[in-house]
Structure formats: structure tokens, C-alpha cells
Amino acid sequence: MRALIAGLALCALPVAAPAAVVLEDDFNDGDYSDWTLEAVTLAPGLTTQVAGASSPAIDGLALELSLLKTPGTGDNIGPVFRLMRVFEVTDAVEHFFSVFAGNTVCSGCTVSYDVTIDGVLMTRAQDASPFTEAAFSLGVLGAGTHTVGLGVYSTNVSSGKFAAYFDDLSVTNAIASDVPLPAAAPLLAVGALALAGLGRRKG
User: Fold this and answer.
1) Is the pLDDT of residue 50 over 90?
2) Which residues pair with 88 in a beta bridge?
3) What is d(CA 57, CA 51) in angstroms, rounded to the nearest whole number?
4) Average pLDDT value for the chain
5) Angle value at C-alpha 134, between 133 and 136, nearest 5 degrees
6) Where are the domains positioned within the chain?
7) Rounded CA gap, 159 and 75, in Å?
8) At 115, is the secondary structure helix, strand, or coil?
9) What's this model's pTM, rounded to 2 decimal places?
10) What is the mean pLDDT of residues 56-70?
11) What angle do helix axes 184-202 and 2-11 make, rounded to 10 degrees?
């Protein structure tokens, strides 16, 4: 009897619900119309390209941001090419950002990926591995609209294609409510019936 009651009590213990998703994009649809190009001034001979890449990718497609450099147009110093997306915050609580990112390897030059939030550079890194997760707290974001930027940064490139890759982006918040475990409801019902049966026997 005591074991039954203890088991029912454990089933009724609350569990933390997943954090609320504020923004999510796995880039698998190849549609980037909900992202906008940040105005940039490129050095002579540089053009930009936005595409879906099947490799590297976590699954499906990844977002590829490329700088294309025409040979014989001189070196460049620090061009930044970014896509921006607005997201809405309804609760002024701590928020968290995560994206898998990587970049092409450059010999004699630098290629990096970067992430901005509301115009503030959060990370700029060089990573030759297919993908590394960039995850960090955004602190408490005020209610209203905010902007995330994904970019490719390079220095001293001479000619060729220089790219940053992004996949499985998310912004979540710290709102999580304690809710009864759904699977426990049937067990609670069975337990209640069992207790009722025991009561009738004693009567």
C-alpha cells in the first residue's frame, strides 16, 4: 500500500517544460526571404552570394554566405557581409542563442563567421571544422523587436570563394513552467481506483 502511494506521488511530481522558442530556422527550405541583406560596402572585385549548401550541413541544407573575389582586383581588408532577421520578444527575461557555424579555410588570409544581436558583435570565430555550436546567453532582452545577424568576415583575400556556413539556429527564453508529467495521468487514475477498491474491501 505504501509503495503504491509512493509511486503515485512520484508520478505526480512536476517536470520542467521546455524553454519557449522565440526564433528557429534550420534553413532546410532554401528560402531566405525572411532574412535581409545588411547594407555593406565591398572592396572592388568582391560580390556576395546567398545559397543553400547540402555540404556541410547538420541535415538537409545549411545557409551559405559567400564572398566571391575576382582575380587581379587587389587585396581587401575586412569586408563584412551579413544577413539580418528580426524576431519579437514578448517577455523581458533571459534569452539564449544557439547556431551551428563554420567557414572555409583560407591560405594566407582570414575567413571567419560572426553573429550579431541588435548590432552588437557576439562572436567572430575561425573554424575549419564542418560545424561548431556557438551558444551563449543574450541576457535579459526587453520586450519588443530585436535583430540577429549572421555574417562572413575576411581579410586579405586575393581570388576565389570565401564562405561561412550556418545551420539549426534558435533563440529561446528562460520561461518554463512546472507541469505534471502527462504520462502520469493514467497511472494516477488507476491508483485512485485501486485505493477506492481497498476502501470498499475494508468496509
Assistant:
1) yes
2) 145
3) 12
4) 80
5) 130
6) 16-171
7) 9
8) strand
9) 0.76
10) 88
11) 150
